[in-house]
Amino acid sequence: MKFVTEFRDPASVAGWVREIAHLAQRLDRPVALMEVCGGQTHTIFKHGLEALLPETVELIHGPGCPVCIMPRGRIDDAIALAEQPGMIFATFGDALRVPGARGSLMQAKARGADVRVVYSPLDALTLAQTNPDRPVVFFGLGFETTAPAVAMTILAAARAQQANFSVFCNHVLVVPALEFLLQASGLRLDGFIGPGHVSAVIGTDPYQAVVDRYQKPVVVGGFEPIDLLQSIWMLLLQLVEGRCAVENQYHRLVKPEGNSPALAALAQVFTVREQFEWRGLGSLPRSGLAIAPAFAAFDAEQRYCLPSQASEDSPVCQCGLILQGKLKPWECSAFGRGCTPDHPLGACMVSSEGACAAYYKYGHGGPRSPIAAPRRFAEASARPPLQSELAR
Question: How distant, in Å, are the alpha carbons of 78, 88, 124, 225 from that of 305?
Answer without folding.
Answer: 11, 16, 21, 46
